[in-house]
Specification:
The chain is mainly beta and about 300 residues long. Among the domains are: about 40-65 and about 105-110, no CATH class; about 110-155, Factor Xa Inhibitor, CATH 4.10.410; about 175-300, Immunoglobulin-like (Sandwich). The protein has three helices and 19 strands.
């Protein structure tokens, strides 16, 4: 049945209760109906997944999800800056046009403009603008520029600074507090330590700071390569020696798998260098019949 009123005609199919034109066809868009204004409720989304204020683009249609808003639309959209402007002419006809200027836009896809501190500022780009993105490596490209001179990586800071993941600010290397963890241990020449089945190393490590044991990791059984996630947390002194001792856990007496430290010019063990803290990691891998060890320093 077709019903014509002033301003247009509408048709309805009673067979299935669906609006005519509800499926995609030649020259049309899925969900598009006669007189449907892009960006309006139940109409196709605008370019870039935008919708009118209060609506969210879902499955290419603008819908009301009960107060949720499109992350790329301005809640005070006045028809400028990437929104849509609805105007009525002297004849009562309604038209829609793309806005101009920047006042209606709170950030382009992949941008942190107007989104600093948010976890998901832009669903289309899937990049982030909160401090956690610095460690997960998925910050938006302009995170440092848009979020008030902060940092995402140690490389964004000076040579004697590190990027704090908690504040997204650069901190002097020996002022920062670090999570310190071994994220790789590998036996380059696997050895049967126990002489029976399941005989590879049951490895754990200890951290010594200033000669005193300050941390003992969990034990990982029967491995030739492994990593740990539980850190030792500390602020490091530029004069205090830090070393790591690795052990094979054995009921008859633990066996040493070697010790790693930060050698000074005279090859004696020293404090963690500022350059290592700035790099955020240190790898020991002399090759041959030895063990490879990598330790990570994450500024909190």
């Amino acid at each position: 049945m077709a019903l014509c009123l002033v301003g247009g005609c509408f048709s309805e199919s009673f067979g299935g209760g669906a609006q005519s034109g509800g499926t995609a066809g030649t020259g049309g868009t899925a969900g598009e109906t006669a007189g449907c204004v892009p960006g309006a409720e139940t109409c196709p989304c605008l370019e870039g997944g935008r919708c009118d204020a209060g609506l969210v683009c879902a499955s290419q249609l603008c819908v009301d999800l009960g107060g949720a808003s499109d992350p790329t639309a301005d809640p005070d959209d006045s028809g400028e800056g990437g929104g849509t402007a609805k105007t009525t002419d002297d004849g009562g006809e309604t038209s829609t046009s793309a806005g101009t200027g920047d006042t209606g836009s709170i950030g382009q896809p992949g941008s942190c403009e107007g989104h600093c501190g948010e976890s998901v500022p832009d669903f289309s780009a899937m990049c982030f603008c909160d401090p956690v993105c610095a460690t997960s490596g998925d910050c938006c490209g302009d995170y440092v520029e848009m979020c008030g001179g902060g940092c995402a990586f140690n490389e964004d800071c000076g040579d004697l600074e590190v990027c704090s993941v908690g504040s997204s600010t650069c901190v002097e290397v020996f002022t920062a507090t670090y999570d310190i963890v071994v994220d790789q241990w590998q036996d380059n020449t696997p050895t049967c330590w126990d002489g029976v089945g399941d005989c590879f190393a049951d490895v754990y490590y200890e951290i010594y700071y200033g000669g005193d044991p300050v941390f003992t990791s969990s034990t990982v059984e029967d491995v030739v390569i492994t990593s740990w996630t539980d850190p030792w947390t500390a602020t490091l002194d530029p004069q205090t020696v830090l070393s790591l001792a690795f052990w094979d856990d054995d009921s008859l007496g633990d066996e040493s798998l070697g010790t790693q430290c930060f050698p000074q010019e005279d090859q004696s063990c020293g404090a963690v260098p500022a350059s290592v803290l700035h790099a955020g990691t240190m790898l020991w891998d002399p090759g041959g019949e030895s063990f490879a060890v990598q330790v990570r320093f994450l500024a909190r």
